Amino acid sequence: MRFRPTDDNEGFTNESWQTSFLDIFMLLLAFFIILAGLARYDMRIFDDDARGLRSIIQGTMRVQTPIDELRADIQLALSDEIETDRLMIQSDRDEMRLSFTDARFFETARAELLPEGKELIDRIMEAMAELKFYQYYIDVEGHTDNRPINTLQFPSNWELSTARAANIIRYFMERGFEPSRLKASGYAETRPIVPNQDELGNNLPDNQALNRRVVVRIYY
What we know:
The chain is α+β, with helices and mostly antiparallel strands. It has helices at residues 16-39, 43-51, 54-58, 66-77, 79-83, 115-128, 157-174, 205-211, and strands spanning 87-91, 95-101, 137-143, 182-186, 213-219.
């Protein structure tokens, strides 16, 4: 006997294809939502996670960013300078600032890099070499105090501070650092960290010594 549909089955159509279509549509929608989320994701964090910091690879204490890890290395390499307050380090997620008194690098009113300054740069570069796969950039800042200078070579503190920064950059290049990732900035006396003078206009020698500084800004 052949089955004959009853009246209840008459007009019945197979709509299962609609269910499959909705499933595919929902999958595509979820895919594009994920893509939109990745577009706002900080890819530097993704790179950090993908490649792994040295401390993670070695199973030692975990740090959050390459700057954190570099800071730990530099603190170890320059521990004497930190302990004697000849170096101040400030850092956040993306950059680190190493602030040295200028006496470590230059004689008064001169821009020739001293051997002690070269030795400090060597130690910085050795610390940076431990994380070779990160493309660090360096901006060297020259800062002076408020005492004017007027020589044939340096008509003002602008020329002096810029020449000092440029000479440090030149030494980085001599040591093999890629020139395209280097920058020299001179600020003269415009960015003191403490007042150069008291309320009566008298110079404050200790403060002036702090304002005469070299800042090595490392970022990526």
